[in-house]
Fold this sequence. Notes:
Elements: H1 4-11, H2 15-23, H3 30-43, H4 49-56, E1 61-66, H5 72-85, E2 91-96
Parallel strand pairs: 1-2
Helix pairs in contact: 1-2, 1-3
Amino acid sequence: MATIQDVADKAGVSIATVSHVLNNTRFVSDETRSVVLEAIQKLNYHPSAAARSLSSRKTQTIGMVISDITNIFFGRMIQGVLDVITPQDYNLILCTTGD
């Protein structure tokens, strides 16, 4: 699994520059941005969710407690929640009460 350091090395830039491209936090020239994005694609880089959670103090995680996972109603509800949160890069933790 590629790291942000691997992307920086491949693109010939600093980790900070890669971070600025990923987060769109500062101006990065179009040429440098293209080089970084190409390195990201070639390395199949995906930011670490754990690292992002630590730095932002946000886990991007939603918890659900349901009574019966075998009930079709809950299955549809879970799928509906996943359909909404997955594109937003959120995770779901599911717990059943067994009632």
